[in-house]
């Protein structure tokens, strides 16, 4: 069931809470584009692990109101607002793909509340010194982020019609992703259940507009509002070595700068391998046991 939490500025945030009601709270921050209904571990597993999983639509996606000119750092404020609404004083965060920078924002800006943070196939800052940001990246993502760097107009001209196409047929984006993905991702995407979850995810994310998608990309290509090197909470960085959507060089760059980060680069895995590894990371988030 979807809850609505109101931010201090009156915006509505669409929130889902599942798993063990008495479990350790873990915020799962969705990818780009994405929403609160994206792939997540089954309820039975969450109960077994003692996890209360919280997902929400970032501003502009699904049921959450847009926040114009939002930065990556603004995610920390929304997470804190949701945590306050549910009475969570301390919690862990995990972000997949486009959710990764937002999870790092929480770790950097809420050090007294975030216990641990994990990033799966995440991105590095746009101005990352010494990183070739586009190296190993798919053509569609290069074109999209190049448009984002040019400003709202060029990006909206690209993503608005794309979102309209996806609203008409959400499976369209899944098909496009499959065309560009590395062979290492094909076994994951061969699962009909995963494909159905992704279709549901994209349909809900873009059902009203492309705003969330546009604002995510603009935020990634602008100053994030925090320095990853300032993070003091434990961080786990996981990446599939063959990823072409968020290349592994981004995680390697972050690993060199986030103090004491635990880094796992998995050969033979790519972007959607993060869906398989997510259940293995949850125990690390709640108890500190290394992912298997």
Outline of the structure:
The chain has helices at 43-49, 74-86, 99-109, 139-150, 152-168, 171-180, 186-189, 192-205, 211-220, 248-255, 273-287, and strands at residues 2-6, 12-19, 24-29, 51-56, 91-96, 114-120, 235-240, 262-266.
Describe this structure in words.
With 292 residues, the chain is an alpha/beta fold. The chain has a single domain, classed as Rossmann fold (3-Layer(aba) Sandwich), CATH 3.40.50.1820. It has eleven helices and eight strands. It has an eight-stranded mixed beta sheet, with helices on both faces. Helix 1 links the parallel strand 3 and strand 4. Helix 2 crosses helix 3 (99-109), helix 4 packs across helix 9 (211-220) and helix 5 (152-168) packs across helix 9 (211-220). It starts with a strand and ends in a 5-residue tail after the last helix.
- The share of residues in helices is 40-55%
**CATH hierarchy, class:** Alpha Beta
CATH superfamily membership: Alpha/Beta hydrolase fold, catalytic domain
CATH architecture: 3-Layer(aba) Sandwich
Give the N-to-C terminal Cα separation.
Answer: 31 Å
**Largest sheet entry:** 8 strands, mixed
Radius of gyration: 17 Å
Continuous helix count: 11
CATH topology: Rossmann fold
Order of helices and strands: EEEHEHEHEHHHHHHEHEH
Q: What is the typical, i.e. mean, pLDDT?
A: 96
- Spatial strand order of the main sheet: 1-2-4-3-5-6-7-8
What's the structural domain tally?
1
Give the low-pLDDT segments: none
Categorize the overall geometry.
globular
């Amino acid at each position: 069931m979807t809850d609505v939490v109101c931010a201090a500025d009156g915006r509505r945030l669409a929130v889902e809470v599942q798993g063990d009601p008495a479990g350790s709270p873990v915020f799962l921050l969705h990818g780009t584009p994405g929403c609160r209904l994206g792939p997540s571990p089954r309820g039975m597993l969450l109960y077994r692990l003692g996890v209360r999983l919280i997902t929400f639509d970032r501003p502009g996606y699904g049921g959450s109101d847009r926040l114009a000119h939002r930065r990556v750092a603004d995610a920390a404020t929304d997470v804190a607002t949701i945590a306050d609404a549910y009475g969570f004083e301390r919690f862990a965060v995990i972000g997949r793909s486009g959710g990764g920078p937002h999870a790092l924002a929480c770790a950097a800006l809420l050090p007294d509340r975030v216990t641990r943070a994990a990033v799966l196939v995440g991105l590095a800052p746009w101005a990352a010194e010494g990183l070739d940001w586009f190296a190993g990246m798919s053509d569609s993502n290069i074109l999209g982020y190049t448009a984002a760097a040019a400003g709202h107009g060029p990006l909206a001209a690209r993503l608005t019609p794309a979102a309209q196409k996806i609203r008409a047929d959400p499976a369209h984006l899944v098909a496009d992703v499959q065309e560009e993905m590395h062979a290492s991702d094909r076994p994951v995407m061969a699962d009909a259940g995963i494909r159905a979850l992704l279709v549901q995810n994209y349909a809900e994310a873009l059902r009203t507009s492309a705003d969330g998608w546009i604002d995510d990309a603009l935020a990634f290509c602008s100053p994030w509002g925090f320095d990853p090197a300032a993070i003091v909470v434990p961080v786990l960085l996981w990446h599939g070595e063959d990823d072409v959507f968020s290349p592994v060089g981004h995680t390697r760059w972050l690993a060199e700068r986030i103090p004491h980060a635990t880094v796992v680069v998995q050969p033979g895995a790519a972007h959607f391998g993060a869906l398989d590894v997510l259940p293995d990371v949850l125990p690390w988030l709640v108890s500190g046991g290394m992912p298997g």
